[in-house]
Structures are given as structure tokens and as C-alpha cells.
Write a structure and sequence with these properties.
Two copies of one chain form a homodimer. By secondary structure, chain A is an alpha/beta fold. Helices cover 32% and strands 17% of the residues of chain A. In chain A, the strands form two sheets. Chain A has a seven-stranded parallel sheet with strand order 8-7-6-9-10-11-12, with helices on both faces. In chain A, strands 2-1-3-4-5 form a five-stranded parallel sheet, with helices on one face. Chain A is elongated. At the A-B interface, helix 2, helix 3 and strand 12 of A face helix 2, helix 3 and strand 12 of B.
């Protein structure tokens, strides 16, 4: 029997994903798959989904067995009241590896202060020798797929790494703290702070004025997670006062970040355009195909979202 | 009996090294050490040495059992005809770790093209997503203490790493090539090339026009090794033609690099002021103390230089 798979993402994504998806279906032995961007809702078996697609009402998809998100973040769909189907997050090894590279690169950029030279090619010999990584404590907030992998990579380079998450985790070489009482301790030592929390009601504005004040003076914030994790006004005030030395921000409340936003002009902010990592079509297509295979075999789906928890 | 240890480095180094050296001597159980910057040559047992010190004639040091170099590089002393005493290089774990951090940081900087954003905070949303490290071949020339450690760290981050050295080496996860016939193959795939060779008659101008031409178009050169490893004119020509995309240079034929040198103004060159790594007093002092302990116990010294080979 034909398996009807609706591709519901922005139009430009179809060209990127069609071939990798067909290849992944074949690889997983899925025969007779009808993959298209336009299928009558009542005939759809699976929805491959981006939260910015045109599909916002899931009511007509009466037979759909699962919504398979193309993104790691699900905050654009998890509260949709019309969604009654099981929802799976994207956990893509390519996305995870890209995130590790971006976070490691920007952590080393701030640790070594390479901007001093990149922005200072003026003939002045500025002999700044940074401390070793072993003397530079780093904290990662969020120890999921992405945060955990980043914490591990940074510990591997010699940084003393503290990780914090809602529930207690165990990662070799990383000091893992948890819960409300663990957060102040995680912030206290954070010369470099990396935000990789999911966006939920509990994490919105998590990095506010009080929590920034707990960090060491001159600390650096790196946010490849989600824009609303930070109280933007508190961040700007702390950068102005010197309580924070720099912020490198990849995600924002509004994207693209408007050209007039104060982040662009602030000398202590580096804006990057939501590139810390993205889903890679080849590896992501395999995750989607594996979940369709599991759905057809009535096995448990991978990476199901706990809708009460929000991620 | 008193052990007379002459500290022969630039005057400003004495303040940095005196306390760590005394602490390391105590740690190694060396008693009755007379450490000073001024000891009659004929009474000196060991010389702690920097090639830029005032001591250039070793003839009067008739009783000295060893010259203990504070630097990893020995090209400023190895050809000194007055040197008849054994010469030991500095192999400092702090220096090695600092080098790994600098090389990893700048490799990721070029891999991720972070300069695009650091230099482009103008309100334009430039969505460049780099390939994964697994698709970015890196080559390290020189697989000694420093090059070997850097090759290993980069392989650990997922880069396909090729290493090249005079004699064949074995490093887990690194494709090791050797000798004259291995060099062209090491260059062919080098999207990022890292120079960590010792400076000898054989390696001077090793990276010349012919060898640059063998690299992939748009490749990046990172030189934290020694300035004269590169033919500067050939490098500038290749940057102008686009055969090379960028050069990040930490070492130069003349240091500090004169403000009028074309490297400073070239848009495809990043100059850093010989900071890729430096000897760290605490860890280096332990290496010196260990060699004095060995000398007194008539054991073999660590890190002896093969003067015929030049390093």
C-alpha cells in the first residue's frame, strides 16, 4: 500500500530535501512511498514539517500517524492546539556536529581574543598571551543533544566545563548541576556562558539582570540556542556597564535581526545570522526515513516530544 | 656542594622565572642551588638559556654540564661553533597546550569563516553555512611535540587530517606521510595548511611558489612555526592571485613585524604577534629542574638536541 508523505516546509526547502529523502527511503527499504508537497489532507500518512510552513491546522490530517519535525526546536508547533498526532523532533548528527564546531570555534575565539588581531591589523604588535584553557571555566546551560555534545567537546580541549540542565545529567569530564538551586552555581564561575536550552515557558528570559549579575565581571555570553532565552534589555545594560565583556548572538526574537537593532552597532556584540547549525539534508533525511519505517512496523518512534514538558 | 645555575635570558625574564625555578628545584629535591644572572663563567654548572640573551660565546663555561634552552626552537643556538656542551630543547606541556588551542582556534576561525561576521556587523544578514569539518581536509607540516598534538586535536574535532614529517610517524586518526615524495601529496588536499616544522637548512623557504601551486585553490595557510619556512614573496603573489584565500601568520623573518610590511595591510593576511604559544614559567621550570636533577644523578638528559640534524 502506498505511504503518503506530505512535505510541509517552505517552498525553497523542497529542492534541497527531495533527493536526499527519496534516497533515504530506498536505503531503509520503504517501497511505494508517495512523497509530495500537495496531498489531500485526509490521505496523508506522515507529515514532514517545518514550523514556518503554511500548514498550521492539523485537524484535517485525520489519518496522519506522525508529524516529523525538520528542526531541532519545536516551540513553533508544540503548543498548537490542533496537533493531536505524535510529534518527533529532529536529532540530526550533522546538525549536532555543526553546532559543536560553531560553539567550539566561538569559545576559542573569545578565549584567545582573536578579534583583537582580526580587527587590529594596524601595524601594532599587541602581545596578548591568553591563559590556558585549563584556567578558563566555561558553563553550558542545557545538556540535551546539542549542549551535551558541546560540553564534551570543550572539556576535551581542556576547559573546566560546568553544565546545567533541568534534570540531573551525567557527562564524563563535565561538572553537571541541575534544577533551580544548581543554576546560581553554574553562573558564578562562567567566564564563558553558552546557551543551548530549549525555549519553554520556564526558560524564556532565563538570562535576566539578576542572573547576569551572578556571573564573573567581564564574562562572555554565546547564544546559539534561542533568542528569547535572554532578556535583551538586561544584556545590553550589562554590556554597557562592563559586567559582560561580549555577547556573540546567533538567534533573536525577530529574524533576520532588523538593521536598526542596537545589537548590530554595539561594539561588544557580534551578530551571526542563525547559522550556528542547521539541519543537514542527507543526515536528516535518514532520521525521517527511519521514523517512517518504525511507524509502518508499529515500533516506537525516535525523539518523540513530551508535549507537557514542551520539548 | 653548591650547584651553580646561570640564568642567561633577557633581563625582563628573570622576574618571571626566578620564583617558579626556585619552587621547581625544591620540588625536585635539589638542595644548595645557587641560581643567579651573574656567575663567573668558569664556576657555572648549568646554563638556563634563551637564544636572545647576551651570552653568545660558550667557550669560558668550561665546567658547564648542559645548556637548557627556554625555547622550543633552537635555531638561534644550534649552529653556534663555541657550543660544545650538551643542549636540551624546551618541551613544555603548557607551551604545547597553548599551541593546540591557538591552532585549533584559528583553524575553526577559517573553517567557519567567523571573520565574515566579526568584520561585517553592518546589519546585513549573511547566511553562510560552512561544510562540516568532516568535509574540510587539513594538513599539518611537522609532527613533532607541537605538530603532533595539533594534528591529534584537529582529528578529534572531525577534520580529516594529513600530517607530514621528515621521517615516518604514526598518529592515531591522522594520515601520516613522510619524506620528499610525501610532501606533494600532503599539500594536494590541504584546504587549511598548518606549518609547525623546525627551522633548518632543509625547511627554509619550504613553502615556495611551486609548493603553493600544488594546494587547492583558495586554501588557507596558518604559520605558528617559524617565519622563514615561507617564501614571503611567493605567499603574497598567491594571495593576490587568489590561489591562496588567506594567511594567518604568527611568526616572521623580522619581529616585531615592521609597521610598513605589506603583510599588515594585505586584506587576506592576519598578523598575530608571535603569541601562538609561549613557554609557561611554572611548567617550563619543572622541565629545567628535572634536567638538572638528571645531570647531577648522571642520568640521560631529556630532549637533547641532535646537532647534526639541527633540532
Amino acid at each position: 500500500m502506498t505511504i503518503n508523505v506530505l512535505f510541509a516546509a517552505r517552498a525553497d526547502r523542497w529542492a534541497t530535501y527531495e533527493a536526499p529523502l527519496r534516497a533515504a527511503f530506498a536505503e531503509k527499504g520503504l517501497q511505494d512511498v508517495h512523497l509530495a508537497t500537495d496531498i489531500p489532507p485526509e490521505a496523508v500518512d506522515y507529515i514532514i514539517y517545518s514550523p514556518n510552513s503554511a500548514v498550521q491546522d492539523f485537524t484535517p490530517y485525520t489519518r496522519a500517524k506522525a508529524v516529523l519535525n525538520l528542526w531541532a526546536g519545536v516551540e513553533g508547533i508544540v503548543d498548537n492546539p490542533t496537533l493531536t498526532q505524535p510529534l518527533a523532533r529532529m536529532v540530526d548528527t550533522g546538525l549536532r556536529q555543526g553546532m559543536v564546531e560553531w560553539v567550539t570555534g566561538h569559545t576559542l575565539r573569545h578565549h584567545l581574543n582573536t578579534d583583537l588581531h582580526v580587527l587590529g591589523q594596524d601595524g601594532q604588535w599587541r602581545s596578548y598571551v591568553p591563559p590556558l584553557a585549563t584556567d578558563r571555566p566555561v558553563t553550558v546551560l542545557g545538556l540535551g543533544e546539542l549542549g551535551g555534545a558541546c560540553a564534551e567537546a570543550l572539556a576535551g580541549l581542556g576547559f573546566p566545563v560546568t553544565g546545567w540542565s533541568r534534570s540531573q545529567k551525567q557527562i564524563a569530564g563535565v561538572t553537571c548541576l541541575a534544577g533551580a538551586e544548581g543554576l546560581p552555581r553554574a553562573l558564578e564561575t562562567a567566564q564563558i556562558l553558552i546557551l543551548l536550552l530549549p525555549l519553554t515557558g520556564q526558560t524564556e528570559n532565563l538570562l535576566d539582570a539578576d542572573r547576569i549579575a551572578r556571573m564573573p565581571a567581564g564574562a562572555v555570553v554565546i547564544n546559539p540556542g534561542r533568542g528569547p532565552l535572554i532578556d535583551d534589555g538586561a544584556l545590553l545594560a550589562a554590556l554597557d556597564s562592563g559586567q559582560l565583556g561580549h555577547a556573540t548572538l546567533d538567534v533573536f526574537r525577530e529574524e533576520p535581526l532588523p538593521p536598526a537593532h542596537p545589537f548590530w552597532a554595539h561594539p561588544r556584540v557580534t551578530v551571526t545570522p542563525h547559522i550556528a547549525s542547521e539541519t543537514r539534508p542527507t543526515t536528516a533525511a535518514r532520521v525521517i526515513a527511519e521514523n517512517i519505517r518504525r511507524g509502518e512496523a508499529r515500533e516506537n518512534l525516535l525523539y518523540l516530544v513530551d508535549r507537557a514538558r514542551g520539548y
